[in-house]
């Protein structure tokens, strides 16, 4: 089993990728790390626990599922180390179980929005979005998918393999073909890395391009997101940080050395305004973006003190 630092490095380097998978991995890693601290005095246990939590949270600044998972896992009311570890263990088991069940619930709720014969466009690789597509297919609906390549890391290749192996007809397109191809699409279904209190979506770079093209073509955009992907810190006015990743994901460093007047910008995410989103599908129901505050307040399970 990986230790906490190994898990943190896998998250940082995107060996573990996807907001949901990151959250589950972080919760399990923090739980296991807490158990290793059982011989410490309570005060030192708290310090080490917070250090471990920060190590995990600092790996990926945009995916709010990560700090939410850590906050939900580490909180406890005990003054005894063994009792605190029991609470943390229980928190992690509950979080992981709920995360797994959430995908099935999102699939069932979201599939109601897909009709027989629909062509669905998706972007990057989202377990939640794919759950909706697979559930609709399992219901016997004659659907097909158009998936973007999702550069620079080409997560779309993971999506097309998964859909192919499930028997769902799928077409791969380059990211720049989204607007041209949108006329063939009935519905856009994407995942989420974060959703802010005003209903804006932070997701893989290029998502806003899909949403804008969909609005122009008068196609609906559905976001599939577990409740732990809503950002409680945006209640306090904090902006979601957009992660800027290494230029090596875009261009060979040796080639870049030959281009002294060129620099590379590699933002990993972009922001889609709420007005471009028709519906957010969560495990507790379907909500318009304007109800993001309600989801954070009533369903996320975090108090202001936790964030």
From TrEMBL:
Biological-process GO terms, alphabetical: L-methionine salvage from methylthioadenosine; pentose catabolic process
Domain of life: Archaea
Protein keywords: Carbohydrate metabolism, Isomerase
Catalytic activity: alpha-D-ribose 1,5-bisphosphate = D-ribulose 1,5-bisphosphate
Enzyme class: isomerase
GO molecular function: ribose 1,5-bisphosphate isomerase activity; S-methyl-5-thioribose-1-phosphate isomerase activity
Residues reported to bind substrate: 17-20, 60, 203-204, 229
SUPFAM superfamilies: NagB/RpiA/CoA transferase-like
Active-site residue numbers: 124, 193
The protein's Enzyme Commission number: 5.3.1.29
HAMAP family membership: R15P_isomerase
Family classification: Belongs to the eIF-2B alpha/beta/delta subunits family. R15P isomerase subfamily.
Additional facts recorded: Reaction proceeds via a cis-phosphoenolate intermediate.
Job of this protein: Catalyzes the isomerization of ribose 1,5-bisphosphate (R15P) to ribulose 1,5-bisphosphate (RuBP), the CO(2) acceptor and substrate for RubisCO. Functions in an archaeal AMP degradation pathway, together with AMP phosphorylase and RubisCO.
Descriptive protein name: Ribose 1,5-bisphosphate isomerase
């Amino acid at each position: 089993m990986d230790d906490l630092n190994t898990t943190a490095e896998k998250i940082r380097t995107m060996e573990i990728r996807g907001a949901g998978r990151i959250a589950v991995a972080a919760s399990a890693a923090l739980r296991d790390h807490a158990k290793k601290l059982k011989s410490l005095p309570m005060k030192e246990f708290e310090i080490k626990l917070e250090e471990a939590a920060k190590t995990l949270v600092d790996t990926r600044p945009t995916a709010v599922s990560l700090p939410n998972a850590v906050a939900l896992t580490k909180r406890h009311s005990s003054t005894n180390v063994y009792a605190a570890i029991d609470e943390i263990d229980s928190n992690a088991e509950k979080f992981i179980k709920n995360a797994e069940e959430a995908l099935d619930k999102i699939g069932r709720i979201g599939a109601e929005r897909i009709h027989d014969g629909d062509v669905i466009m998706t972007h990057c690789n989202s377990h939640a979005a794919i759950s909706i597509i697979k559930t609709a297919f399992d219901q016997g609906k004659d659907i097909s998918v158009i998936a973007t390549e999702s550069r620079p890391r080409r997560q779309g290749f993971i999506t097309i393999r998964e859909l192919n192996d499930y028997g769902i007809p799928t077409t791969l397109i380059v990211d720049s073909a989204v607007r041209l191809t949108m006329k063939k699409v009935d519905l856009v279904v994407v995942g989420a890395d974060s959703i802010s209190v005003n209903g804006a979506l932070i997701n893989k770079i290029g998502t806003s391009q899909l949403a804008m093209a969909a609005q122009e073509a008068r196609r609906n955009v559905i976001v599939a997101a577990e409740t732990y992907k809503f950002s409680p810190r945006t209640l306090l006015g904090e902006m979601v940080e957009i992660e800027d990743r290494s230029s090596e994901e875009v261009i060979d460093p040796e080639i870049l050395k030959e281009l002294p007047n060129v620099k590379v910008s590699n933002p990993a995410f972009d922001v889609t305004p709420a007005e471009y989103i028709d519906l957010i599908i969560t495990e507790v129901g379907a909500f318009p973006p304007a109800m993001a505050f309600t989801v954070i307040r009533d369903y996320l399970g975090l108090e202001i003190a936790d964030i």
